[in-house]
Amino acid sequence: MATTAETYHKPVLLKDSVDGLDIQPDGIYVDVTYGGGGHSREILSRLGAKGRLYAFDQDADAQQNIIGDSRLRFIHSNFRYLKQWMRFEGEQHIDGLLADLGVSSHHFDDAARGFSFRFDAPLDMRMNRSAALTAADVVNNSSEQQLSDIFYIYGEMRNSRQVASALVKARAQKPIRTTGELVEATRHIFARERQRAGVQEKKEVTKMFQALRIEVNHEMDALRQLLTSACQLLAPGGRMSIITYHSLEDRMVKNMMKAGNVEGRASSDFFGRSTSPLTPVGKVIVPTPEEQQQNPRSRSAKLRVAVKS
Fold first, then answer.
1. At 39, phi and psi to the nearest 5?
2. Whole-angstrom Cα distance, residue 166 to residue 139?
3. So what's the pLDDT on residue 198?
4. Element (H, E) at 237
5. For strand 234-244 and strand 72-75, is the pairing parallel, antiparallel, or unpaired?
6. pTM beyond 0.70, yes or no
7. Do residues 279 and 90 make contact, with C-beta atoms less than 8 angstroms apart?
8. pLDDT tens, 96-116?
9. Which end of the chain offers a freer environment for a tag, N or C, measured as fewer CB atoms within 10 Å?
10. Residue 53, φ and ψ in degrees, nearest 5
């Protein structure tokens, strides 16, 4: 089946996330995770003739979904370079930024990309296929301690040492090149955990894949740079609307929106008032049961919105 904008990626929390931006018709907005263009299309529908939208995506596949609209400027780049690109475009400030983090439906459904253990495919996981590092490189070339750290930090896996050890033993026999070989090399670890603690094997494998994907794409570093740049670029009254899918990225977003930095270091003035440049707007929003049923990717989603002071 041919990939269309609709099948490439189904946007999560579409209305809520764009509502959070409080769109001004003549404003300047940025969608840093363009994908299938769903969120961008909604933003454009609320912009006036003088409004502008910059859309980022590091995956070349997303370019096939570019909307034909003179108000849209598509930038094929990682969102970590937001500040540099806005300077290049001559934009000193922006009125809003939207990010739908994580992996798109397209990436999970394209077997060749190696993001999902539903398929036996090359162990790739690169968001940007021109990048050099693949998941196979990480699995086969990292030390046992490095692998353990990756699984513990990015996958929050309590059995990270056992998983790392299993991979090192397996790759000593032959390189681990596919998603199927990765799962097979660690199957006995997860099976043992399931029997002992009732842990769901699928959930543990998902954590392992998540950790490798984050490492391959340097996702936490990119998110840190994005949040810092967005906070600096937002005009007073400007908003950021960000959808997260796991605790690591959600913690960083929450910290930035409350304290003005990803570490969550609170600061106050002489009178004890917070000096954070951002103020959270409303409560965390999660998808309705109906959306979760229609779009399984949305089940772990959380939307946070903040406004610049």
1. -65, -40
2. 11
3. 46
4. strand 234-244
5. unpaired
6. yes
7. no
8. 999 999 776 655 556 667 667
9. N
10. -135, 125
